[in-house]
Each structure stands twice: as structure tokens, then as C-alpha cells.
Amino acid sequence: MHEEIVRFGDAGQLTGIVSLSPATVGKARVACLFPNVGLAHRIGPHRLNVRLARAVAQAGLTAMRFDLSGIGDSSAVRSDGNYLDQAVRDMQAAMTALETRFGIHHFVVFGICSGAVNAYSVAKADSRVKGILMLDGFSYPSRFSKLSDLLGRLRLLSARQMPGFAAHLLARLKRRIKAPPATSIDASISVVMPPMAEFDHDMSQLIARGVNIYCVFTGSMQVTAGDLDQFSAFGKAPFLGKIRCEYWPDVDHTATALHSQKHLSSSLCNWAKSVALGS
């Protein structure tokens, strides 16, 4: 495997690392992008992006992990848009850099939490994106799913733990009541869910365009064990039958354990290769 540093963007302000197998230089049809996880450096939590990018390269695809503007080794830029607008432009610049350097025209994007928002947003904005893997991204569980999860957690508590758990629920309810309504998505902080009608429309549009959508939810999301529980508020919406959705109860939000990283790496590589074959 070979790796090289790249500087790209309109002013060369962005920094990334390209990982590739020498045998596939000039032959790879799809590259996998790894933008930042939140405000963390491009290496990812406990070097997760490094491990995933190198695994993708060893699987025969090109990978690029990079810092968005103002994060890590990438300089901040003056912009009229918000964080998400700039993140989309940065990811498009990464695709253009790989097109120019390696002749790759199709891309898949991996994102965790707010990074999933970035992946989803650039897929909507750019037809070069052929697949997105969103880990703990958008979530629309129904009231029934939420209640099932709550009851399941209550069954695990002892009598001594009940008062503390009740106080925690009450505090969360008070914060939700007092919280102002969200008016925009600031993906650098958290995931703000678009209105259901908008999300349904956007997912349907992406699927119609041929984008491969893979949604993974970890045990940190606190849902019941059904793969589609996080989208249960949509009932039987057509887009649900056309995406890949999995619930991994034994994996945490940033795949901390080594067995979790291996599971994520294997799933990502197999999925990315399947997207490449269909491109």
C-alpha cells in the first residue's frame, strides 16, 4: 500500500492523505472519502479513519482521509455560507483533486454522526457520489419504538437505580421543553433531523439517482433490535425497501473495541466494493 499527502482546494488550504494499492493506480473506479468526525482531526477517533482508509486501499480501492476547512491541518476560509455549505464545498474539492490526480470519477462517502450529515449533504449536491455509509446519522424512531426501548431499559434496572433513572428522564424532558426550535443544521455540533417530508423526498431522489445508501446504527443509539427501528416513524415509506439498514447492538458510537473496528472495516470494504462493481 502507498500513501501520499495532498494539498487541495481553491487556495490549497485543505490537507488530506490518499491511501492506495500500487496495483490499482489508474484502475480504481471508485474512491472512498473520510472527512472529519465532528471537529476531530482527520485520523478519526482512536485512529479509526486511518484504519478504515488503509483497509479500503488494501481491498483494492483508493481512499482519502482529510480535514475540512478550519479543522486539523486545513486552514479556515472566509465563506458566506454556514459550516455545512463549506463542508460540502470541501468534499467536492476532494473529489475534484482525486479526479485530477488519479482519474477517479465516482465516490462513496463514510460519515459518523455529524459526518453522516456531511455525507448525505454532498450526495444531494453532487452526482459523482455513488454511495454513502451513515453511521449513527439521521434517526426517526416512532413513539412505539421509543417506548419499547424505554421499557427494555427499565427491566434492566434494579430498585436502587430507579430513582436516578427517573430523575434523568425528567431532566431530559425539561431540557426538551425549554429548548428553542432548530432553525438550521450545524453539523459541526450535532445531528439535527430534517422534517420527515423533506427527508423522505431527499432519500427518494437519491435512490432514483442510483445512490447506494447504507445506514448503520450502533448500540449507542438506544433503540430496539430491529434494523429499521430508527426509521419506524415512516411506516412503510417506499425508500425503506431500497436502502440497507442494520442495527449493531454490540458496537458503540465510535467503534472503540477492536472487534467493533474489524466488523466495521469488513462491512465498509465489502459494501464499497459492491458499489464499485455497480458503477
Note down, in words, how this protein is organized:
- This protein has 279 residues and is α/β, with parallel strands linked by helices.
- It has a single domain, classed as 3-Layer(aba) Sandwich (Rossmann fold).
- Helix content is 39%, strand content 18%.
- An eight-stranded mixed β-sheet has the order 1-2-4-3-5-6-7-8, with helices on both faces.
- Helix 1 (48-58) links the parallel strand 3 (30-34) and strand 4 (62-67).
- The longest helix is centred in the C-terminal third of the chain and has 21 residues, at 258-278.
- Mean pLDDT is 85; it is low at 181-189.
Q: Can you tag this structure with a few keywords?
A:
single chain, 279 residues, alpha/beta, Rossmann fold, eight-stranded mixed β-sheet, 7 helices, 8 strands, 18% strand
Q: Low-confidence spans: pLDDT under 50, at least 5 residues?
A: 181-189
Average residue-wise pLDDT: 85
Q: Looking at the structure, what is the overall shape?
A: globular
Question: Gyration radius, to the nearest Å?
Answer: 19 Å
The CATH architecture assignment turns out to be 3-Layer(aba) Sandwich
CATH superfamily: Alpha/Beta hydrolase fold, catalytic domain
- The CATH topology assignment is Rossmann fold
Number of helices: 7
Give the SSE order as H and E letters: EEEHEHEHEHHHEEH
Instruction: Quickly give the structural class.
Output: alpha/beta
Number-wise, the strands total 8
Report the biggest beta sheet as strand number plus sense, adding barrel if it closes. Answer: 8 strands, mixed
Domain count: the total is 1
